[in-house]
Amino acid sequence: MQTSQGKDILLGIDLGTSRTAIMSNRGLKKMIRSVVGYPKDIIGVKILGRTHVIGDEALEKHPYLNLYFPLENGVLKETSEKDTQAAIELLQSVIAMVNPKPADRISAIVGVPARASVSSRGQLLKITNELLDYSMVVSEPFMVAYGLNRLNRAIVVDIGAGTVDICAMRGMVPGTDDQITLLKAGNFIDEVFQKAVQESYPDVQFTPFLAQKIKDQFGFVGEPQEEVVVDLRSGGRPVPHDLTDELRTACEAIVPDVVESLEQIITMFDPDDQDEVLQNIILAGGGSNIRGLDVMLVNALKGYGTVKVSRVSDPDYAGAAGALKMATELPAEYWNQIGDVMGG
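Below the sequence we write its predicted structure tokens.
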């Protein structure tokens, strides 16, 4: 679409505790770590040559940086001005990826956890309204459902780093009562995993970043298909360690709460619809990659009837894709008429 002053740029942004995904109507599809690094002192400024750095580069250069993760449990931190500054610079970096020209009009739909507080959404809208021409805040599981066109008789389970969001799709924009947010998610798994490894192998060096990396690569629930053996440094030397039991315990730690919430969500639907709903449980988010999770949930819910749990084909970008689809299908003249917040 061509405006009198420039072109319309449409963005779908899935703003996550660990990673932020962005897609645009110009073909951009990218993910960055949700972290901003600032030099600790003048030496860091000289080495970095910049006032701050974003994403993986910040993690790589962390020895001489102060790292800020502007999102906590999926929502913007409100603890300090530096956290707010980091959030602004993270979003500025994301927007800059589309290389906008000064005359372009930029509109974005931004995803947040299903039951993020009104104040958190308001803080995010204040930032996005300053950086964009038009913006909306949307529930992350609702974005996933919109992208898949699964808007009725379906349940989305979006497993991110900070939260697990479970959303009932009942043929309308889901409200607060249609959604459950759990704080035991990917980061919680990492913490349980790290603690278990340190208890089993107190002599190894095992950082949170290493715990996350191993979980992302090997995470599973249920009976293991193979042993998880990883080289860990003990006394500075790499030594093979079997982490199978520790990883299984950590990944399964989130399952009871997810099952309990699914049972609660199922009963929100009309009894005549529940058989179909049980066939339409969708796993999304990075945590949907945990092997065996779909089977474990099917077995846990089999008392309700025949259950089918599927995964989105592209868990890293399903939320951003849904947001971009919504932005593309929503006529620009309607953006300010339907409100700033949807799905909450």
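Residues 337-341 have pLDDT under 50 and may be disordered.
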